[in-house]
Automatic annotation (TrEMBL):
The chain crosses the membrane at residues 12-31. It comes from Thermithiobacillus plumbiphilus. InterPro entries: DUF4845. This is DUF4845 domain-containing protein. Pfam families: DUF4845. Keywords: Membrane, Transmembrane, Transmembrane helix. It comes from the Bacteria.
């Protein structure tokens, strides 16, 4: 015989429903937030590839246009030309910096705001 002092142990239907609501809310948030980070990783990879393929003679306009084409191929839609800054280092190599903001509607009147910045340092990406 089981001595439980008259109390049953286990999950109730209300507890199961509560955990279900938490799981669904977490899944919905993840489905809205993960694509934002996937897009950022695409931006990082595009900046890295552009930094490695750009020579010192390329103009800032050429570098910007080539990077925008890479971003378009990677299906990045939230980075605009104004978000890209190109400077020259002491060796006349272009230093590419991309800084942009992404807002995602979560639910109701709540949104998430994400600020992303990545830059190349010569052939490296920070």
């Amino acid at each position: 015989m089981n001595a439980t002092n008259g109390r049953e142990h286990g999950t109730t239907l209300v507890g199961l429903l509560a955990w279900g609501v938490v799981l669904v809310a977490f899944t919905v948030l993840a489905a809205k937030i993960l694509p934002v980070y996937y897009e950022y990783w695409s931006v990082v990879n595009a900046v890295k590839a552009q930094a490695q393929s750009t020579d010192a003679r390329a103009s800032e306009r050429d570098v910007r246009e080539a990077l925008l084409k890479r971003l378009e191929v990677a299906d990045v839609t939230h980075v605009e030309s104004d978000d890209i800054q190109i400077e020259r280092d002491s060796g006349n190599n272009p230093r590419i910096r991309v800084a942009y903001e992404r807002r995602v509607h979560l639910f109701g009147n709540m949104s998430g705001c994400f600020d992303f910045t990545t830059q190349s340092q010569g052939m490296q990406v920070e």
